[in-house]
Design a protein that fits this description.
10 helices, elongated, 13 strands, 305 residues, nine-stranded mixed beta sheet, 16% strand, two-stranded parallel ribbon, alpha/beta
């Protein structure tokens, strides 16, 4: 698969990049993969997801779910193909059969980090890898900072999932705000460095992001369906694997709002270790997800009849 390029001033040039200051607009966009993936990058059908390379399991789980659910809603997921949050967001979009675009700090034919080669190849299948740098160019440290402006411009909304203070993700958020893009952040544990930046953003007025519904409301308006302007249907529900009676009872407690290990132990007349084990099993099966404060919430999965 050969590389291609799109020159500024041509019809195919991504319109959101024109929101950048004249001196900041890439003169050429180099790419590999599906060139048509850039057609939908109109700022109204794309979301940029960025975050820490050293993400927690919680952050990776949230990023992948956001990528998946946004792709299910027909939104293009933009990220930077770095380790951690970026890769998780791309994976989520791909698992939903959606379109994802990676903005890289090297030539579009150079895989960095090398560990993401398999992900790179999957992105090329339906989406695209793009860069302002020509094929063969190796990344330099300042290229990563420079490419953040492109990611900030391409998303109609920019979402941060974990980021230390300071970090490149916060640079992207600052650039997005200057461009007038809504910025959202996923809350994280208050005692972890990797969540300090996102929690600070929320404290400073960024939109709190709990799931894809919050992002879609920012992108299209509350209750608006992406494609046709009708009341939007959120992703799911979907049937999950069979549950035994004990797990089904714990799931019912979570659905009713009993969302911590201690409360579930009391409500289900269980030992705390048994309640914790049941929740861990439900999380593994995809029925519940944990939040940053140690609580649990149900997902879109429903038990089979």
């Amino acid at each position: 698969m050969s590389a291609w390029l799109i020159e500024r001033g041509t019809e195919a040039y991504p319109a959101p990049l024109m929101d950048l200051e004249p001196g900041e607009r890439p003169s050429v966009v180099h790419g590999r993969g599906n060139r048509e993936a850039l057609v939908v990058l109109d700022g109204e059908r794309a979301v940029t997801i960025v975050g820490s390379r050293r993400a927690s399991a919680y952050g990776l789980r949230v990023a992948e779910r956001l990528g998946r659910d946004l792709a299910l809603a027909g939104v293009t997921v933009v990220s930077g193909m770095a380790r951690g949050i970026d890769a998780a967001a791309h994976r989520g979009a791909l698992r939903a059969g959606g379109v994802t675009v990676a903005v890289v700090a090297n030539g579009p034919d150079v895989v960095y980090p090398p560990v993401n080669r398999a992900l790179y190849e999957r992105i090329l299948g339906t989406g695209a890898v793009i860069s302002e740098h020509a094929p063969g160019v190796i990344a330099r440290r300042h290229y990563f900072t420079e490419r953040n402006r492109i990611m900030a411009a391409l998303g109609g909304v920019v979402v941060l999932v974990e980021g230390a203070q300071p970090s490149g993700s916060l640079v992207t958020a600052d650039l997005a705000l200057k461009l007038g893009r809504p910025v959202g952040a996923v809350p994280g544990q208050v005692d972890t460095r990797v969540a300090a930046g996102t929690n600070d953003l929320i404290n400073d007025g960024a939109h709190l992001i709990r799931d894809a519904r919050d992002v879609l409301d920012l992108l299209f308006g509350v209750g608006v369906e992406p494609a046709r302007g009708r009341p939007r249907r959120a992703p799911g529900p979907r049937p999950g694997p069979a549950l035994d009676r004990r797990l089904a009872a714990v799931l019912d407690l979570v659905a009713s709002g009993t969302n911590t290990v201690d409360r579930i132990a009391v409500g289900g007349e269980l030992q705390p270790r048994d309640a914790a084990g049941a929740l861990a099993r439900l999380e593994l099966l995809g029925y519940v997800s944990a939040d940053a404060l140690g609580g649990f919430r149900t997902t879109e999965l429903t038990p089979p009849p």
